[in-house]
Amino acid sequence: MAIEVAQALTAADVAAVRDLAARVAAADGEAAFDEQSLLNLDGGRPVRHLIVRGGTERPDGGARAGPDGGGPAVSDGAAMSMPDDGGSVPIVGYAQVADGSGEVAVDPPARRRGIGGALLDAVLEGQGGPDGPGGTDDVRVWAHGDLAPARALAASRGLSVVRDLWVMTAPAPTKVPSQTEPTSAVDGVRVRTFDPGRDEQAWLTVNGRAFADHPEQGRMSRADLEARMAQPWFDRRLLWLAEDVNSGRTLGSMWVKISDRVGEIYVLGVDPDAQGRGIGGLLTAHAMAAFAARDLTGLELYVEGENAPAIAVYERAGFHRARAHVQYARTGSH
């Protein structure tokens, strides 16, 4: 089948990919792409887009051979298939690669035709990337929800799990007066809300130190922060900074996201030099108080499965592991 590769998408294709993501989420009960991947659709980061359009696979389910008769045909996006009526061909498969991480999604009605496997192979082989086919062994691929079909596809390519990202959930806290204001305190630490135009660099600094070894949070830039602040769900009153009362130095932060009546602990980070003082618990108390003051249906958060200290904080707050997203890579590439 023909796989188009592009560094940027047209507005029509951005809309088509978002529609595809919505259909996949409705069918699978899991989002096809993470937040950063959806933000990447509009540009701003070096990204590789891989697209399969309807009609580029054989009706019998087989794939059209590439120019050498072997693998899928890959184009640079310049020659796009167009239907007879002049409209754009619907996107039935899409993959994105950025910062060495990939995601793949196939339209539910177009599954079991080899589209997912062809896109995965193209991602793993670096097709359309700077190294060309076969040029990389270190691309990691997310499987959101760790669903059985994704496990089977990964196993067929000899991939192993290299990351386990937990989704932890909790019931919405009961709204009672004693819960609407945090009661926890840490000596020498004050907590205040984020001030746009003043606190961006302080937040980036403490977040970068807290997540220095994290593949996504550790790369957060000013542009990434501003892109999130521009989203409809952003509320500066739900982003707190913990500061040293004497020096004013930022020691940690808690960012809460509320969407569709679900409260999410979006980012909780504590400076390594300030860990062990109870700052994570203090910030979590502020988040839980904010949740209790709102009419929510439930709470959720994401945490690395190997981050035992953070998991302990969240379990004390009433969260439990509900499901996981896993990341695959070739054996020996992690």
Automatic annotation (TrEMBL):
<feature type="binding site">
    <location>
        <position position="257"/>
    </location>
    <ligand>
        <name>1D-myo-inositol 2-(L-cysteinylamino)-2-deoxy-alpha-D-glucopyranoside</name>
    </ligand>
</feature>
<feature type="domain" description="N-acetyltransferase">
    <location>
        <begin position="189"/>
        <end position="334"/>
    </location>
</feature>
<protein>
    <recommendedName>
        <fullName>Mycothiol acetyltransferase</fullName>
        <ecNumber>2.3.1.189</ecNumber>
    </recommendedName>
</protein>
<dbReference type="InterPro" id="IPR016181">
    <property type="entry name" value="Acyl_CoA_acyltransferase"/>
</dbReference>
<feature type="binding site">
    <location>
        <position position="302"/>
    </location>
    <ligand>
        <name>1D-myo-inositol 2-(L-cysteinylamino)-2-deoxy-alpha-D-glucopyranoside</name>
    </ligand>
</feature>
<comment type="similarity">
    <text>Belongs to the acetyltransferase family. MshD subfamily.</text>
</comment>
<keyword id="KW-0012">Acyltransferase</keyword>
<dbReference type="GO" id="GO:0035447">
    <property type="term" value="F:mycothiol synthase activity"/>
</dbReference>
<feature type="binding site">
    <location>
        <begin position="104"/>
        <end position="106"/>
    </location>
    <ligand>
        <name>acetyl-CoA 1</name>
    </ligand>
</feature>
<keyword id="KW-0808">Transferase</keyword>
<feature type="binding site">
    <location>
        <position position="264"/>
    </location>
    <ligand>
        <name>1D-myo-inositol 2-(L-cysteinylamino)-2-deoxy-alpha-D-glucopyranoside</name>
    </ligand>
</feature>
<dbReference type="Pfam" id="PF00583">
    <property type="entry name" value="Acetyltransf_1"/>
</dbReference>
<feature type="binding site">
    <location>
        <position position="216"/>
    </location>
    <ligand>
        <name>1D-myo-inositol 2-(L-cysteinylamino)-2-deoxy-alpha-D-glucopyranoside</name>
    </ligand>
</feature>
<dbReference type="InterPro" id="IPR000182">
    <property type="entry name" value="GNAT_dom"/>
</dbReference>
<comment type="subunit">
    <text>Monomer.</text>
</comment>
<dbReference type="InterPro" id="IPR050276">
    <property type="entry name" value="MshD_Acetyltransferase"/>
</dbReference>
<dbReference type="GO" id="GO:0010125">
    <property type="term" value="P:mycothiol biosynthetic process"/>
</dbReference>
<comment type="function">
    <text>Catalyzes the transfer of acetyl from acetyl-CoA to desacetylmycothiol (Cys-GlcN-Ins) to form mycothiol.</text>
</comment>
<dbReference type="InterPro" id="IPR017813">
    <property type="entry name" value="Mycothiol_AcTrfase"/>
</dbReference>
<feature type="binding site">
    <location>
        <begin position="268"/>
        <end position="270"/>
    </location>
    <ligand>
        <name>acetyl-CoA 2</name>
    </ligand>
</feature>
<feature type="binding site">
    <location>
        <position position="35"/>
    </location>
    <ligand>
        <name>1D-myo-inositol 2-(L-cysteinylamino)-2-deoxy-alpha-D-glucopyranoside</name>
    </ligand>
</feature>
<keyword id="KW-0677">Repeat</keyword>
<feature type="region of interest" description="Disordered">
    <location>
        <begin position="53"/>
        <end position="82"/>
    </location>
</feature>
<feature type="compositionally biased region" description="Gly residues">
    <location>
        <begin position="63"/>
        <end position="72"/>
    </location>
</feature>
